[in-house]
Amino acid sequence: MKPRFDWIPLALVALVAAAALPLVASAPIWLTLTVAGLAMGMMIFMMASGLTLVFGLMDVMNFAHGVFISIGAYAATSVLIALRGAMHADSLAANLAAMAPAAAAAIAVSGILGWLFERVVIRPVYGEHLKQILVTMGGLIVFEQLIKVVWGPDMIAVPRPQALSGSFILGQAAIERYRVLAVVVGLAVFAAMWLLLNRTRLGMLIRAGVENAEMVESLGYRIRRLFVGVFVAGSCLAGLGGTMWALYQESITAQMGMQVMVVIFIVVIIGGLGSVGGCFIGALLVGLLANYTGYLAPKLALGSNILLMVLVLMWRPRGLYPVGR
Amino acid sequence: MIRSLLSADPPGSRLLAASLLAVLVGLALAPFVFPGARSLDVAARVAVFVLLAASYDLLLGYTGIVSFAHTMFFGIGGYGIGIAAASWGSGWGSLAAGSLAALACSAAIAFAVGLLSLRVRAIFFAMITLAVAAFFQILASQMSWLTGGEDGLNFNLPSVLSPGTKLVAAPVLGIDLNGRVLSYYLVFGCALALFLVLLRIVNSPFGRVLLAIRENEFRAEALGYRTVVYRTVANCLGALAATCAGLLYALWLRYTGPATTLSFDIMIDILLMVVIGGMGTMYGAVLGATIFVLAESYLRDLLRLASDATHGVPLLPALLHPDRWLLWLGVLFVVCVYYFPHGIVGRLRARRP
User: Fold this and answer.
1) Angle B214-B336-A66 from CA coordinates, rounded to 5°
2) Which of B242, B290, B249, B309 is nearest to B59 (CA)?
3) Is the pLDDT of residue B52 over 90?
4) Which chain B residues touch A135 with a CB distance below 8 Å?
5) B45 Cβ contact partners less than 8 Å away, ≥ 6 residues apart
6) pLDDT value at A325 more than 60
C-alpha cells in the first residue's frame, strides 16, 4: 500500500511566498527576494540532506557535519585560487571549467574525510547517543583546529567567477546570476536524490534500512556497507554545499561550518529527523522566510528561523514529515 | 564534619584527595601565595568555572542529558547583574534585585525548554538547546539599548568592592587588603558553598533517581518515578547554578558581554572541562576546570617553547603553535570519551589502594 502524498507542507511553501507578496508590496522586489530565498534554501538543503539521511539510516546525529562543510569549502577555495586566471575570464565556459574541478576537489576531500571519520570516530559508538554527541563534538573541535593549522586562522576571500557575478534584469527585478546557478544545482541534487531513493534498487534498500535495519540484514544484505556508503555520500554533499556556500558568501573561516550548523539543525528538525523530503521543504521555508523578514523587519531576520521552528513543532511536534520509530 | 560537608561522597583516592586539597588551598590563599593581577584573575576564573562545570556535570554526568544552552543561563546571570547595575545604579539593592530577576528568568526558561523537549530523545534535546542558545545570543546582541549589543556592559559595583578601597590600613602578609581581594573572596566563598550544595544534591535520594534515569530510563519509569519531572527539575537546578556562576563572573569582571558569557566557545570549554575531569563525579569538574583554565592561561607559553624547539621540522611547529592549544585538549577530550568515560577522576579512583 502506497500512502498518499502529504501535500500540506509543500503548499505551505507556496503560501509563505504568496503571503509575502502583499507585505512586500512590490512585485520586482518580491521576485528578487523569492529567488534569493530559494537559492539560500537549496544551498542549505545540500548541506543538510546528508545529515538527515545519515540520521534516518544509522541513528547517528553527527555534530561534526559542519566540519565537512568547511573542509569542502577550503578545498574548493584552494583550487579556485590556483585557477584564478580562468575565474577572471569573461566566459561562462571558462568559469565553469574552473568551478568543476573545485567542486570535484571539495566532494573528494569531504568524502574521504567522511569515510575516515565513520571508520575511526563514529563506528565505536553506534547506538550510544550520549557518546555520539560528545565524540562528534570532539571531532568538530579537533578538525576546526586542524583547518587552522593547514590553511591558517584568518578569513580567506573566495574569488567569484566573472560570468556569475552581477545580475540579470528581468522586467524591473534584478536577479543575481549566482543564485540562479544555486537553484539549478540544488534542484538537480534533489532530483538525483529522489530518483536514487525511489527508483533504484539501492534506494529501496536504503529506505528499507531506515524502516527496519535488522530485517534488511536478515534478508542477506550487508547493511554496514550501506551505512558507510550513505555516510560518505552525505559528507560529499556537505562538501558540495560548502563550496556553493563559500562562493555565495565570498569568504570562508574555519568556524563557518559551525555557524551554518545551527540553521541546518533547525531545518532538519522542521523537516522531521531523517526525512529527505521534509529537509527539502524545511530548507526552502527557512531560506524564503530569512529573505522576506530580512527585507520587512531586519531585526527579526536572524531569529525568524527559530520562530518558524517553534511554530512548526507546535503544529507537528515531530516535524513536517515524521519518520517512523 | 568533613564527611558531612562532602555529603558522604569522599574523593576515594589519596592522589585525588591531595590534588583537590591543593586546588582548595591554592584558591583559598591565592591573593597571598600568587600575588599579581593576572594570577588573581586566573584564580577567580577557576572558582567560577568549577561551579559552572559542576552545574553542567549535574546534567551531563548525572542525568545523562546533553544541553548546549548552558552558556545561556551563565549569560542570563551575567546580564542580570550587568543590566541592574547599569540602569539602577551600583547599590547592593540593585545587585540583589538583578540577581533575583536573573534567577527567576533562568528557572522559567529552563522549565519551559525542559518541559517541551525533555520528553523526547537526547539528540533532539541537544539540537533544540543549540538553537535556543543561538537565538538568545542573537537577542543579546540585537537588543543593544538594553544589553549594550556586541560591546557588552561595563558597570560599577558598590565602592567596598572597588580596587581603590583599603579595608585595613597596613598591608597584611605583604598584601594590601583592598576591595579587589574582598571581591575575590566573595566569588570564592560563594562558588565553594554552591559547589558543596551541588555535591549534596547529587548524593541525595533525588540524585540517586537521576543516576537511575541515566542508566536506564525505562526501568526508572517502571519503578514509578516520573522521569520527565525529575529531568525537568535537574535541568532547572543546573540552570540556577549556572546563573549563579554568571552572577559571580560578572561581579568579578565588572563587565558582561556576549563573548565572555554567551559564545559557543565557552560552551565547548565547559564540555571539555567536564569530560576531561570526569563525568558524573562532581570532583571531575574541579580538576577539569582547574586544568582547563591553567592550560588556557599557561599552555600557550609551553607550546611556544615546544614550537620553537621543533623549528625546522615540517608541520610540527604549526601543530605546536601557541594558538593551537585547543587542538590538544580536543584530542584529549576524544580519547577521554572512548577510553576514560569517567575522566581523570575515574582513573585516579580505579587505582585506589
Assistant:
1) 85
2) B242
3) yes
4) 334, 337-338
5) B252, B293
6) no
pLDDT tops 90 at residue A212: no
Q: A242 vs A112, A279, A287, B207, B286, CA distance in Å?
A: 15, 17, 16, 44, 39
pLDDT at A123 over 80: yes
Domain that residue B231 falls in: 2-350
**DSSP assigned state of B280:** T
CA-based Rg of chain B, rounded to a whole angstrom? Answer: 21
Q: What is the dihedral of CA B108, B111, B116, B122, to 10 degrees?
A: 130
**What single string gives the DSSP state of each residue in B178-218?**
BHHHHHHHHHHHHHHHHHHHHHHHHTSHHHHHHHHHHH-HH
Q: How far is Cα A70 from Cα A242, in angstroms, rounded to an integer?
A: 6
* pLDDT value at residue A1: 41
Neighbouring C-beta atoms of residue B56, cutoff 10 Å? 29
Please name the residue of chain B whose CA is at the shortest distance from the CA of residue A153: B323
Domain tally, chain B? 1
Q: Please name each of the domains of chain A with its CATH number.
A: 8-314 (1.10.3470)
Nearest to A258 by CA among A59, A69, A23: A69
Residue B104 has pLDDT above 70, yes or no: yes
H or E element at residue A65? helix A65-82
Rg, C-alpha atoms of chain A:
20
Of A129, A145, A265, the CB nearest to B130: A265
Concatenate the DSSP letters of all residues of A258-322 into one string.
HHHHHHHHHHHHHH-TT-HHHHHHHHHHHHHHHHHHHHH-HHHHTTHHHHHHHHHHHHSTT-SSP
Domain of B333: which CATH number?
A: 1.10.3470
Task: Please count the residues of chain B.
Answer: 353
- Say if the Cβ atoms of A130 and B323 lie within 8 Å: no
Pairing of strands A156-157, A251-252: antiparallel
Q: Is the dihedral of CA B285, A121, A226, A112 positive or negative?
A: positive
What ipTM does the predicted assembly reach? Answer: 0.83
Test B324 with A149 for CB contact under 8 angstroms: yes
Grid cell locating B8: 558522604
Lowest mean pLDDT, pick from A93-97, A101-105, B214-218: A93-97
Helix (H, G, I), strand (E, B) or coil at B256: strand
pLDDT tens-digit profile of A234-263? Answer: 999 999 999 999 988 888 988 888 888 889
What SS3 class is residue B141?
helix
* B121/A129 CB distance under 8 A: yes
| Alpha carbon separation from B55 to A14, B50, B329 (Å, rounded) | 46, 9, 21
Q: Read off the C-alpha cell for B112.
A: 519551559
What is the DSSP-derived secondary structure letter of residue B119? T
CB–CB contact B135 A153 (8 Å): no
Q: Which of A55, A134, A153 sits opposite B275 (nearest CB)?
A: A134
Helix, strand, coil percentages, rounded to 5, for chain B? 75, 0, 20
Tell me which of A246-260, A266-280, B170-184, B206-220 is least confident: B170-184
Cβ-Cβ contacts under 8 Å, B122 against chain A: 129-130, 133
What's chain B's average pLDDT?
Answer: 85
**A135, A122 in Cβ contact below 8 A?**
yes
Quick one: which of B231, B240, B246 has its CA closest to B197?
Answer: B240
